[in-house]
Design goal:
three-stranded mixed sheet, binds iron/sulfur cluster, Alpha-Beta Plaits, alpha+beta
Length: 278
């Protein structure tokens, strides 16, 4: 029958109107008091009626799965070995899958050998072009890019404020665990660790190499260095000690001597190849 939909719509509006006043009676003036928890309750799924959110004084809490622009995860500042280190390996998958192509990545290089290292030197996202689809976060194999909850980004200067660089994009792992605890927990179960999976791998390698170092080290003769002599000249004993085993060290965390050695070998290989071709 003509007009049924119109009548239903009007009835719905009337119901919301009445329910708003019932809710007012239920909460009384506490409903408008900013310092109470009522605002959170009124924004919940059990809320009835229509209310006005006094933004920006009041803000509706966003659900955990809410997504706005992406950010990059870095290790927490209190991490014992990788504080502030990027989780991103600059593999470029996010930039490839991004539908509007608003991600730019510059892969880092080893300063000595010039070979690429798994760290981004620069990372930019144009948040005006980003359509908040979340593909980058879905496809990242290292859980290194996530969708943020921060939606207050209006500004008058597009260039300096809306093209986010690596510094602006980087946020600690603890931030992600704070805004998306359930998701972070699920990811941790799949990854097997709260840290970046490389951190756990490095720790395992370090433990294995130090165990190998201990087992292969010959027992020092008792008369060679007495404890009192070592205490008397700790610098000398440290200088005489062999450098710690570098096995398992990543190219970007090794010391200068090791780098120099690697560079020398790379140049030798290059010279041999050139001689063969010539
Ligand atoms: S954020 Fe993830 S997908 Fe993108 S480059 Fe870094 S590691 Fe690769
Ligand atoms: S959320 Fe979507 S549009 Fe935005 S950077 Fe990620 S993939 Fe690109």
């Amino acid at each position: 029958m003509y007009g049924t939909g119109l009548a239903k719509g009007l009835l719905l509006t009337l119901r919301h109107f009445v329910e708003s006043y019932i809710d007012d009676l239920r909460y009384g003036f506490r409903k408008y008091h900013h310092s109470t928890d009522n605002f959170g309750i009124r924004q919940g799924t059990k809320t009835k009626g229509v209310i006005t959110v006094q933004y920006p004084d009041e803000k509706v809490a966003v659900p955990e799965r809410f997504r706005f622009v992406p950010f990059l995860i870095v290790e927490d500042e209190d991490h014992p070995t990788r504080a502030g280190k990027d989780w991103c390996t600059s593999c470029g998958i996010c930039a490839k899958v991004c539908p509007p192509q608003c991600i730019w990545i510059v892969r880092g290089n080893d300063p000595v050998t010039g070979r690429p290292v798994p760290e981004p030197e620069a990372f930019f996202i144009d948040i005006d072009i980003c359509m908040n689809c979340g593909y980058c976060a879905e496809y990242c194999p290292f859980d290194a890019i996530k969708m943020d909850h921060d939606y207050e980004m209006a500004s008058y200067d597009r260039t300096s404020h809306h093209i986010h660089d690596k510094e602006r994009l980087s946020k600690p792992n603890s931030y992600w665990r704070g805004i998306a605890p359930t998701r972070a927990y699920e990811e941790m179960l799949v990854r097997g660790t709260w840290e970046h999976k490389d951190a756990a791998k490095e720790a395992r390698r370090g433990a294995a190499s130090s165990a190998r170092g201990r087992s292969s080290q010959p027992a020092a003769p008792a008369a060679t260095v007495t404890s009192s002599a070592a205490e008397a000249a700790p610098e000398a004993s440290a200088a005489a000690a062999p450098a710690p085993a570098a096995e398992g060290a990543t190219p970007w965390s090794e010391d200068d001597a090791k780098r120099e050695e690697r560079r020398r070998k790379a140049l030798e290989r290059k010279a041999r190849r050139a001689a063969k071709q010539g």
